[in-house]
Amino acid sequence: MSSKITFSIKIEPFTALVILLLTLVSGVSNAQNIEKWVTKLNKSKLLEKQKQTLAFSKNYQNLPTIFVDDSKSFQSMDGFGYTLTSGSATLINQLSNKKELLNELFGHGENSIRVNYLRVSVGASDLSDHTYSYSESKDLSLKNFSLKEDEKALIPVLKEIIKINPTIKILASPWSPPTWMKSNNNSMGGSLLPEYSQVYADYLVKYIKEMKKHGIVIDALTIQNEPLHPGNNPSLLMLPNEQANFIKNNLGPTFLKNVIKTKIIVYDHNADRPDYPISILNDPAARKYIDGSAFHLYGGSVESIGEVHEAHPDKNLYFTEQWIGHPSNFGGDMAWHIKNLIIGATRNWCKTVLEWNLAIDPQMNPHTDGGCTACLGAVTIDKNKIERNAAYYIIGHASKFVPTNSKRIASNTVLNLQNVAFKTPEGKTVLIVINDSDKNLEFLIGSKGKMAKETIEGGSVVSYVW
């Protein structure tokens, strides 16, 4: 004969509350595990999510530590991305799998890199298939102004991108005014003739208004791409005093009169001349119209950008262009750009980091006569075949995890592990670290009194998210 014994367990309300709290704390602890995405400089891993996460613990170990401190915050980020040249748009527009590529670049899905910032050219850039403006013959009233060249591919592709990501920010940059406004009547070089300063201001306002009719909002405008490089095609020489005069006498007042909210950004050239934007911002009549300054890094050091912040801390900074040459050294390009742009530019107060061209074909076309013949795109498009290049992963390591309005937060450097950290609007922390040595390095990630032990492989870039 067997007897069945039952037990009745009575849980007091206080005990139940303790169990509930322990369960909740356990859930929070699990949620705080660190996910990571890795790119190896030898291409054996490419922005690959790792199955194993890192666990935070209160058990401190005697290891070098990257401390991430969200109590100290710096600039708010506008975004990470590329220049969508008209040449890029032409190549993308011809794809039969165009929607898949655009979703991969600009969507919010697990397999997207979530690009949230784009630069476009006002008129042709040197990676257009020919030079053009929106007013090809002398027309002071701008009655014949037309976006017809951009309506062929650039505007249709932009509209599709905006459908995918309606909050994407767009920066516009002119490579050259219409040739009839210039001292040499040529798309390459020359200066803006003073007698056409006002009509050129009207031209830029008309561009912003006409783009808006297409549903494309221009968030910001740089005055001139590379104003100290008149040897490109198209290009324009524009000295600091000329840019200051144009802003304070023409563009600024014309924006005000037409209630244009587009931000005005100066310079848009190399970090070796911080004096150029500083001199313009020192002019009170010009600075009142200016949001900030933009930089490239074909000359100078990225730390020089910080000098502009020190001189004018109330004005914003943007990193707007850096090319990768063909043929690419993937590992070397990845390491240099992560260290100098994703980490260096943001640590020097830049609100954006933009690589140069979004798309190119295998022959490095299209480009203008005299334009760049070796500018590798983030993607190479060969008919319907798409190859993802170094710039795709450089930007992806940030854009995938750092949405618009994230803030850069404090983090220190140990073991020469260069890094940068951000806090997202949703409260997530993102830490981007590069180990470009050939040795695996053991270190701790410290956050809010807890530590997580990590070994970062030699020759790797890692985005940590928790």
UniProtKB/TrEMBL annotation:
GO biological process per UniProt: glucosylceramide catabolic process
Any one annotated GO CC term: membrane
Alphabetical UniProt keywords: Glycosidase, Hydrolase, Signal
Span of domain Glycosyl hydrolase family 30 TIM-barrel: 78-402
Domain Glycosyl hydrolase family 30 beta sandwich, chain residue ranges per copy: 405-464
A UniProt-annotated Pfam family: Glyco_hydro_30C
A Gene Ontology molecular function term of the record: glucosylceramidase activity
Ranges in a coiled coil: none
InterPro entries: GH (IPR017853), GH30_C (IPR033452), Glyco_hydro_30 (IPR001139), Glyco_hydro_30_TIM-barrel (IPR033453), Glyco_hydro_b (IPR013780)
Family, as annotated: Belongs to the glycosyl hydrolase 30 family.
Record protein name field: Glucosylceramidase
UniProt organism field: Lacihabitans soyangensis
